[in-house]
Every structure is written in C-alpha cells, then in structure tokens.
Specification:
- By secondary structure, the chain is an all-alpha fold.
- The chain folds into two domains: 39 residues; 48 residues, no CATH class.
- It is built from three helices and no strands.
- Helix 2 packs antiparallel against helix 3.
- 6% of the residues are buried.
Length: 89
Amino acid sequence: MSKYLRQLCCLCCVLFVVDAKIMQGHLTAIRHARWFEENAFHSGIKVLVRLLRDLKKRFVGFSGLTTWMIDLLVGVTVLRCYLAHVSHC
C-alpha cells in the first residue's frame, strides 16, 4: 500500500469518527429536547431553569452544571413537589 493511500485511509477513518461523535451529540440534544418538552409542563420549571442558567453564568460554583443537569434537577424537584402537594389534597 502506498504512503498516499495509507494517509487517505487514515483521513477517512478520522472523518468517520468525528462524524459519528457529532451525530451522537445531535442525537443526545434531540433526546434532551424531547424530555424537556414532555416534562416541562409546569411554568415554574421554565422559570427555575432560567434562574439556574443565570446563576451558572454569574457564579463559578454553578459552572459545572450542564444544561441537561439543570433541566433534570429542576424537572425532578418541581415534579416531586407537585406530586407531594396533590397527594395531600
């Protein structure tokens, strides 16, 4: 195999891996959007998500939170409070 052909094969492999990683990232974003759409039924969820995103920008301690972490944290918290309130009625 010539040197040129080996370099071309390596380049194709690298492009395939990069494309696969990009596609995986897009698939994750779609799943996240679907989850948020299904679970953000309460207006308080959207307000708390905005609040935590703002805190993330302002304070270093919140910088480790990803968008997915914020959505999940807020969604579960509000849903549990909502269910606890409904069960006591």
